[in-house]
From TrEMBL:
Residue stretches making up the 4Fe-4S ferredoxin-type domain: 1-29
Record's keyword terms, sorted: Electron transport, Iron, Iron-sulfur, Metal-binding, Transport
Domain of life according to the entry: Bacteria
Pfam families: Fer4_13 (PF13370)
Role description: Ferredoxins are iron-sulfur proteins that transfer electrons in a wide variety of metabolic reactions.
Protein name in the entry: Ferredoxin
Gene Ontology molecular function: any one: electron transfer activity
InterPro entries according to UniProt: 3Fe4S_ferredoxin, 4Fe4S_Fe-S-bd, 4Fe4S_Fe_S_CS, Fe-S_cluster_ET
Length: 63
């Protein structure tokens, strides 16, 4: 499973990085970027939580 951040929606709240720093990282423009190509199995729960917590629904799964 892959995950992506819609950079046009992200408001830089940083919640995703706080919940799942192995997958999300804020870049110098204060937009979240995804660090991994494929989400590791053990991070799936954290990624789902980040997806649900993002206030602007900028995180989405993709195949
Ligand atoms: Fe951006 Fe949502 Fe993360 S606003 S910083 S993608 S929690």
């Amino acid at each position: 499973m892959k995950v992506k951040v819609n950079k046009d929606l992200c408001i830089g709240c940083g919640l995703c990085e706080g919940i799942c720093p192995k997958v999300f990282k804020m870049n110098e423009e204060n937009v979240a970027m995804v660090l991994v190509d494929t989400v590791p199995e053990e991070e799936m729960e954290n990624v789902k939580e980040a997806l649900e917590c993002c206030p602007v629904s900028a995180i989405e799964f993709s195949e």
